[in-house]
Design goal:
- The chain has about 425 residues and is of the alpha/beta class.
- It has two domains: about 270 residues, NADH-ubiquinone oxidoreductase 51kDa subunit (Rossmann fold, 3-Layer(aba) Sandwich); about 60 residues, no CATH class.
- It contains 14 helices and 17 strands.
- The strands form four sheets. A six-stranded mixed sheet has the order 1-14-13-17-15-16, sandwiched between helices.
- Helix 5 links the parallel strand 10 and strand 11.
- The longest helix is centred in the middle third of the chain and has 15 residues.
- The structure holds iron/sulfur cluster (2 copies).
Amino acid sequence: MKFTFKRGVHPAGQKTIAKDIPLREFPTPAEVSIPLSQHIGAPAALCVAVGDRVLQGQKIGEASGFVSANVFSSVSGVVKAIVKKRTAIGSYCDHVVIENDGAYEETLLSRLAELTPDAVKSRVREAGIVGMGGATFPTHVKLSPKTPVDVLIINAAECEPYITCDYRLCLEKPKEALEGVRYLMIALGVKRAIVGVEDNKPDAVSSLKSVAPEGIEIVSLKTKYPQGAEKQLIFALTGRVVPEGALPSDVGCVVDNVHTALSVYEAVALGKPSFMRAMTISGKACSNPGNFYVRNGVSYEEIASFAGMLPETVKVISGGPMMGFAQADLTPSTGKGTSSLLFLNEGEVSGGDKPISACINCASCASHCPMRLMPMFIERAVEEEDAAKAKSLSALSCLECGCCAFVCPASRPLVQSMRRAKKLIRARGV
Ligand code: SF4
Ligand code: SF4
């Protein structure tokens, strides 16, 4: 039996570029610039001043609401400046610039006295853990669902092309990741967890299966994009359908990424807050691809230089090629959600650079949309500024997965249209 969802697409995987390169630590530069907004929700409030000496793991930004997350220094050193800088997603926020003294003198969170649901939840919040798959939603919020939950789903699908850091974690740290899953199960009070891995990574499935304790199932999913999207993953693994406008917890599920589970392990068992993550550097326009543990605050410029960015680079993408963000320059710094940085040549992006032409009503976008939307009609509603129509066509359910744009023979910028539709609906208060 193949565990999967209906529709979706099959982009070229491109995983072979980095998949066999083990994780190693990225050489941290003499200065890091750590964003205070590395998560969905309110930016963290600055809690250090210029001139302060900070330790690795010391809090430098305090969560400023329930949907927010603490931010920690990734090195020891002196705070040199607070600057406003662009992030990888195009917004601006304060960054704490720290001169790295190279000592990596650290401070850890106190040892947990007991493993109760409340203790784990509060540790996850204290450690600033967010969705490490790239969504960056604060994990402690997911651990307090309003409706009863009976299954924890762990996303180890890694369905975006090129990215292989979660795959490496499954191979290199399966015990730690599954221990993190166990802590998440304690926090949610559930007895069952299912870890979904795409079937193009059979060795990751075997690695996890070899150490999985009772109550944690490892399931091989059909390789298809976007297999790792929450609603698609829930359907593939449980057959449950999350209705429009509802949350996974409304059908008894919570979904977390496998890297998030590893971060939970580090916070609970080792007292380590979230200031470093596994990341893939890949693409045919760099000479030194691989998988790295990268501290928060390393500039993309440093990464490009280490990666050996080649002159034929025509596009740099933060995140995967389907849902990531193309970068206008290399000023942003790594954060909790930086799963990859891709250096792509002409051949790798040529499909996306075809001239835009008129819609030919082929309906290919609709027949591949995993949310069963009709992107061509939503695009027309946006062009007519008809917010009510866009809403009635369920534009708010769009995952921004990019399947529609990927298959469109007219190269319509459909994802941008979906984003515009959402903005229009919210701006008009429909
Ligand atoms: S309309 Fe949205 S959910 Fe559907 S394929 Fe396009 S981006 Fe994905
Ligand atoms: S795939 Fe492109 S050309 Fe075909 S209906 Fe959709 S928007 Fe129009």
